[in-house]
Amino acid sequence: MAEKVLMKGNEALAESAIRAGCRFFFGYPITPQTELAAYMSKRMPKVGGTYLQAESEIAAINMVYGAAAAGARAMTSSSSPGISLKGEGISYMAGADLPGVIINVQRGGPGLGGIQPSQSDYWQATRALGHGDFHVVVYAPSTVQEMADFVREAFEVADRYRTPAMILADGMLGQMMEPVELPEPLDPADLPAKPWATTGHADARPHNVANSLYLTAEALERLNVERFERYARIERDEQRAEAFLVDDADIVLVAFGASARIARSAVVAARDAGVLAGLVRPVTLWPFPKDVLEATVPASKAYLSVEMNMGQMVDDVRLVVNGRRPVEFFGHAGGVVPTPAEVLAKIVDMNGRFVGKGGE
Amino acid sequence: MSRSLDIVLAGFGGQGVLFAGKLIAYAGLVEGREVSWLPSYGPEMRGGTANCSVCLSDDPIGSPLVLAPNALVAMNQPSLDKFEGSVVEGGVVVADSTLVKRIPVIPGVRVRAVPATAMAEEAGFKKLANIILAGALYAETSFCGEEALWKAMEACVPARKAEMLELNKRALALGMRAEAEPAA
Fold it and tell me: To the nearest whole angstrom, how far is the Cα of B45 from the nearest Cα of chain A?
């Protein structure tokens, strides 16, 4: 096992991306993501890769499109307002079936918002990262170790299904340091071949095309239907979640990323107070881990979605629970981080209303 | 009994509170414990105060943002003013009494006043008051084994800066055996 080192989430993610064979990074500075781009600017030249600070976020995502079309593992990173700018390019990548990884180290919004940590881009990431019928696979790390682990997984899933993938982090995960064991480096030459890539071939084979413009309605529909067949496979095979103390839980919390850490502390405190609480932590936000959540419904009494926003993922919890149990929300917005004590108070309150007797 | 320690280190930007926090976190890492380090990165650090939260624990760390510290290192008066009320009962405050003129009396909280900036200047390493205070915090809390602390220092100061490593080690030792000033 490699030795653990103390690293910021932004830097651990960047190093791990390089170790996953990423050799093209296109970015633009924005707090609280800037260390990621800064790290890439130092390291990429040393591994023979390309670091480029683009003239804008839109340029950066289109450079990812180009590098991905040529078959490379390529990445861009930004924070919330910058991700909105990338929306057009991400939609084009989805429309051209190009893999690539996009990092969002979220900050409070809307608009320029603030620079403190937030999860208010959940809807954007899972519903409408750009125009058109498409999804991207979205991973939600909750530790610095997962910042490193999930970026490799994102590259692999992106290549396997020819889809963009996103790491939805936040300012807390990007800025904090924790011990991390970095994965072993991959040589980009050892990655699986991409026979669809637009590489030079001197007319040795038919041309490959990377394109998202199809003017014949029937042809475009066929591509959409084929893509949604892939999405169905992703939904079946790529859902991931962590279940913590849910087997006998009356109150099941659902929380991802940084707020899952807070929810977990609140669950432990609730158990100490005699309240049977548990936590489902979605690791993939799309596909939403319906199966793990569904398995908790028979034994549960109520659900609580804990988020750093005004209540977004709670929609997905309600879709799974589908009226069979009450679903409530607790959160803070604008960069305010919920405290375990606040979440505990909410759990105890719900326990009193839905379970009948309060904790000791 | 859990040996969790939730620390806030605060001071002016440039005093080295982030580095002192990293040293403490690294010492926990050396011992294989759960650790986290979270800096303030808001507008307050631009020309004003900087702070960081450090957690050392035997259990997985929930929120890395420390709101109720059991240890506070205050390198200036505004930092002490801002955080003194949040320190929990049984906790400890280590203050740089060269710059913190009002050393508080807080019921149930040990307050250790160490003139770290003056000590650093006198010893010839002006910039290392932060490390003297980390040493003083160590004297109060023994937040790790001593061997781990020295190893952490070696990990945090790059090998190519051998001279800096030596000065940092001297500052740490100075802080560890610094006499606390009597309370006012």
Answer: 13
CA-nearest residue to A116 within chain B is B42
What is the CATH T-level fold of the domain A5-237, as seen in this structure? Rossmann fold (3.40.50)
Residue B53 φ then ψ, to 5°: -105, 130
For position A358, what pLDDT does the model report?
Answer: 44
Instruction: Note whether B172 contacts A: Cβ–Cβ < 8 A.
Output: no
Residue B43 with chain A: CB contacts under 8 Å: 115
With a CB cutoff of 8 Å and minimum separation 6, the contacts of A344 are A266, A269, A270, A273
User: A265 vs B63: CB contact, 8 Å cut-off?
Assistant: yes
Say how far residue B115 (Cα) sits from the centre of its chain.
14
Q: Domain map of chain A by residue range?
A: 5-237, 242-354
Q: How far apart are CA A137 and CA A161, in angstroms?
A: 10
| Complex ipTM value | 0.93
CATH 2.60.40.1180 fits A242-354, yes or no: no
pLDDT in tens, B53-66: 999 999 999 999 99
Question: Nearest by CB to B42, which of A115, A261, A268?
Answer: A115
Which residue of chain B has the CA closest to A261?
Answer: B62
Class at the top of the CATH hierarchy for domain B5-176: alpha beta
Which neighbouring-strand residues pair with A307? A331
| pLDDT (0 to 100) of residue A1 | 58
- List the A164-170 sheet strands across, edge first: A50-53, A24-27, A74-78, A100-106, A164-170, A137-139, A284-286
What digits encode the pLDDT tens for the residues B127-168? 999 999 999 999 999 999 999 999 999 999 988 888 999 999
Q: Which residues in chain A are contacts of B22 at CB distance < 8 A?
A: 6, 177
Contacts of B61 in chain A (CB under 8 A): 178, 261
Per-residue pLDDT of A237-273, as tens digits, reads 999 999 999 999 999 999 999 999 999 999 999 999 9
Pairing state of beta strands A251-254 and A5-8? unpaired
Query: Distance between CA atoms of A269 and A292, rounded to whole angstroms?
Result: 23
| Cβ–Cβ < 8 Å for A287, A315 | no
**pLDDT confidence of residue B1:** 35
Q: How far from chain centre, in Å, is Cα A146?
A: 11
> Can you tell me the distance from the alpha carbon of A330 to that of A317, in angstroms, rounded to the nearest whole number?
13
Write out chain B residues lying below 8 Å of A265, CB-based. 62-63
